[in-house]
Write the structure tokens for this entry.
Amino acid sequence: MPSSPSKPRIKPSIYTTPMEVEVGSNTSAHKIGFSPWWSGLSSLVERMKEMAVGLSKKVKKIVKDDPRRVAHCFKVGLALTIVSIFYYVTPLYEGLGVSTMWAVLTVVVVMEYTVGGTLSKGLNRAFATLLAGSLGVGAHQIAVLCGDKGEPILLGLFVFTIAAGATFSRFIPEIKARYDYGVTIFILTFSLVAVSSYRVEELIQMAHQRVSTIAIGVATCLGTTVFVFPVWAGEDLHKQVANNLDKLATFLEGLEAECFGEKARCENLESKSFFQVYKSVLNSKPSEDSLFNFAKWEPGHGQFGFRHPWKQYQKLGALSRQCASAMDTLSSYITTFPKSQATATDVELRLQIRAACAEMSSESAKALRELSSAIRTMTAPASANRHVAASLEAAANLRSALSEDVALSEIVHLAMISSLLAEWCCARPESPVRSRSWRGSRASSKPNRPAGPPLNRWTLGKNRLKWLLMLRLRTNKRSYIV
């Protein structure tokens, strides 16, 4: 067999040294080992750069959304610095001892973003510590009478009984809402004082130092929170309720423009901003409840005096969420119904329904805007009644048109939407505005004029709220389609 041609061998030049030959043979190996190391390092640097950019954007967004958060951070640092003086100054430290650290701990756990939150935690902690410390000293004095053998048994019995009873009280809704933190501190303080009294000789001095340092920490927190750029929970609740009404009005205005206008095509609504704005109202209950609980602790400030009707804000929030729920049902039907079934042969009836729906949406949105402005300024709404009447009239005309013996099978899509809007505008469920809390006082009905104390101003819009905010969507899809 003929031998296969062998590859030509390259002879090294007479000028090539053995060292150059060895280095040349290892060049590719150096490149192979160097490339992954460099690419890994560069990718790590890129990821760190992306993380830094993302973090900076988040920080910028947080500061832009609410600049008061930056002020709160400085207030926490200021409070900790002030309370640390009691530890650094020798005369103050000698009077309080190691218990001074409880003042620092109190500032850390009590300081909250709002004045109401700080007052709630601070007063709960102060009074719970005072009461638990007094009971702990009393339990020790009673247990001492039983002798050395009976003292630990009686102390254990006291700890078991009081801790079990206090823990059970946390399941009571009223106590859970306002005093849960105080009950926890009460259990902790009583247990520490009662148990340590068996070994500590100067129990009264220890309890006095503990109460004093906690009082110093609470006072520092309250002074810093109230007098240095205060953030009032009641004011935030007031603005949030008004903003929720504006969001509902925005949805109705967008619905009028995109679905019921002359050139409206009712397409790609999911990408529109107005079509998603009501969803934040649906999820507003936790923040509203938190602000409501904190607002009740706050003293009178600004236009919010003592005995301000914070409970009515909760009712308004609940009614706004009912409206948002109805809007969610309406938007779901609009987006999920096959557009191929939306053709109509009766053009005149179709135009009549679209015009009525546009008028209902427009007038309801104007009324909601008016109510939102009235809540912000605490004045009587000037033209809300007129917008409500126009919306109800359009809904009544639409109902009469849909109840006629006409063939609506060709316009089932538009007829269903109009029926849902009519239900939204004309529903009359039982209204909390008829309760005694709303009828407790009489207010002036003159437009754009402040009416008495804040408690009376809230009765101004009850007739408008009866028609607009107490709306309930009946989900049985009872429409006027034949």
